[in-house]
Amino acid sequence: MTQRVLDVSALTEGTADSRALIWWGNLGMLAIEGSMFAMAMATYLYLRSTNLDWPPSTVPKPDLIMPTINTVMLLLSCIAAFVIDRASITKNMLAIRIGHVISLVVGFTFLYIQYGIIVPNLGYKWSDHAYGSIIWTIIGLHTMHMVAATGETALLFVYGLFKPVVKKHLLDFRCTAVYWYFVALVWVPFYFIIFVEPWMQRKGS
Length: 205
Fold this sequence. Notes:
CATH topology: Four Helix Bundle (Hemerythrin (Met), subunit A)
Largest sheet: none
Structural class: mainly alpha
Strand content: under 5%
Number of helices: 5
CATH superfamily: Cytochrome c oxidase, subunit III, four-helix bundle
Shape: elongated
Radius of gyration: 21 Å
């Protein structure tokens, strides 16, 4: 029986762009997680529409300085993610490592400010009222994603220091950068409803 053999030696071993299945898998994951954040936002809007006192009059107006610093810092870190993304195309490992270091500093700093300064001073607990429940849920959801993004960046940074980097790892770098964009940008509307909206006139007042 004659076997037909196909010579694939001229094909590349992998790709670090949208031709890879992992790239589309990453986008699919972001779509799923994005729908989760959308449901959290929809829950918030529903509760706001059914409560005359929103936020509750017992909720103190939040400090804007640290949340704003945290938000601006997170948005600016997208520049580092962009550097990682572009440098992965040309395998510029120095730029990739610098971008990883900046992202890690921002990630850990964001988490420290969020849970070391901001959350302890919210002035209400998740069990105090519906407003507290949805706000704490939103913060918790975003925190899990921030931990995941920072942790994945840390793992890739350490791996890139001690192991040889091949094309599939460059794809991992790019996918993590895209995930970082997502985590940073999705925080913006939540920053508004958690920290800015309480300063606006309350319904029913």
